[in-house]
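Researcher: I'd like a structural prediction for the single chain below. Treat it as a standalone chain; there are no partners to consider.
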Amino acid sequence: MQLTSWLFSYQPKEVAYYFAGFFSGYFAYLMRLIMAFVFVGSFVVRPFLMTPILVVWARIVESQTPIFTMVFTVLSWSAVGLNWVFSHV
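Model: Treating it as a single chain, here is the predicted structure.
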């Protein structure tokens, strides 16, 4: 018996329920796997990301320039840079 004859011998609603049950199990498994990778990955990547961020944060806090001036300067540089990139694309 071919797959198509088996598939068309049932009502469409029964086939939809079969495939929904079949794929929902895989979907739940994949979501759990993705969450596990994110959870473990956060512990693995944290030392590599936190060290440069803490160095930059220490320089910001220890500088004599007001923090809002520095934040708005970085935001304006980012906006100008994105504008330049998107105008040349």
